[in-house]
TrEMBL record:
The keyword NAD applies. InterPro entries: NAD(P)-bd_dom_sf, SDR_fam, SDR_subfam_1. It comes from Mycolicibacterium celeriflavum (Mycobacterium celeriflavum). It comes from the Bacteria. CDD domains: SDR_c. The keyword Hydrolase does not apply. One of its GO terms (molecular function) is oxidoreductase activity, acting on the CH-OH group of donors, NAD or NADP as acceptor. PANTHER family: 3-OXOACYL-[ACYL-CARRIER-PROTEIN] REDUCTASE, SHORT-CHAIN DEHYDROGENASES/REDUCTASES FAMILY MEMBER. Keywords: NAD, Oxidoreductase. The lineage of its organism: Bacteria, Bacillati, Actinomycetota, Actinomycetes, Mycobacteriales. Belongs to the short-chain dehydrogenases/reductases (SDR) family. This is 3-ketoacyl-ACP reductase.
């Protein structure tokens, strides 16, 4: 049996690459048309490179290759007006909205040059960006629709992203992701009379640019000080984070769950916090040690 999304339209933020692109392709393969939004620009405090306009066009092309329509739009999730304009442009072309995937996120890390604005940047994207996406969607999404929010298993743990090495940006990421737990439960309650489901997916380490960058490698391997840290070095530490012996999950693992939550098969599942974490929170309920 498949999770059929035929005739549905999905609005996806952070869609140019990583988890957002995986959501777009998986939902297109299940039959949905896509409104794909990404900032396609750099945020100064975020040290690893963010997506480019070419990345967003690649997402649009791959959706088209799956046989569905894609409306790619550059917009900043921190700006509600930009998101509203992007969504309304997509609806004008595709005619409706059934699914929201509020996925855009960043992890600014100071690594020796902390600044309070790093906290602001992280929370503006990771929390306010989600709230903006919900706000602009709420009057357009069909009754019986689905809202899917990207959280974080690490954000559920003490002493992970809040450690001092990651600075204010890491703290902002953790606070935003943790706050989304109660936000999802509240908005799910208020949208329940319209049969709209709202659920959060909390990934563990995921094979994206947010994980694979020099800054995060240094966080995971503070023991290496005399040379550059390689991906292979970091993956040894990544594997320690999960109960299952893997360094990370793939974006497609998250998208598989999102397609189910977007489909009518999940029609009575709402207000849930669902981890795709290979047992990470079971292994480290109080945060990783050692």
């Amino acid at each position: 049996m498949t999770n059929d999304l035929t005739g549905k339209v999905a609005f996806i933020t952070g869609a140019a690459r990583g988890q957002g692109r995986a959501h777009a392709i998986a939902m297109a393969e299940a039959g949905a048309d896509i409104i794909a939004v990404d900032i396609c620009d750099q945020i100064k405090s975020n040290k690893y490179p963010l997506a480019t306009p070419e990345d967003l066009e690649t997402t649009a092309r791959q959706v088209a290759e799956a046989g569905r329509r894609c409306i790619p739009v550059r917009a900043d999730v921190r700006e509600r007006g930009e998101l509203r304009t992007a969504l309304e442009a997509g609806i004008a072309e595709l005619g409706r909205l059934d699914i929201l995937v509020a996925n855009a996120g960043i992890l600014p890390m100071a690594l020796g040059d902390p600044h309070p604005s790093d906290f602001v940047d992280a929370t503006d994207v990771d929390l306010l960006g989600v709230m903006n996406a919900v706000a602009v969607s709420i009057n357009h999404i069909t009754d019986g629709g689905s809202m899917i929010i990207t959280g974080s298993t690490a954000g559920m743990m003490p002493n992970t992203t809040t450690n001092s090495v990651m600075g204010p940006g890491g703290s902002g990421y953790a606070w935003a992701k943790h706050t989304l737990i109660s936000y999802v439960e509240q908005i799910a309650l208020h949208l329940a009379p319209r049969m709209i489901r709202v659920n959060a997916i909390h990934p563990t380490n995921c094979n994206t640019h947010l994980l694979h960058n020099d800054g995060l490698y240094k966080v995971f391997r503070p023991d290496i000080k005399d040379r550059d840290i390689t991906r292979a070095d970091a993956e040894l530490a990544f594997a320690h984070f999960q109960a299952m012996p893997i360094p990370y999950v793939e974006p497609e693992d998250i998208a598989n769950l999102a397609v189910f939550l977007a489909s009518d098969k999940s029609r009575y599942i709402t207000g849930q916090q669902i981890r795709v974490d290979a047992g990470a929170l079971l292994k480290f309920p109080s945060g990783p040690v050692g």
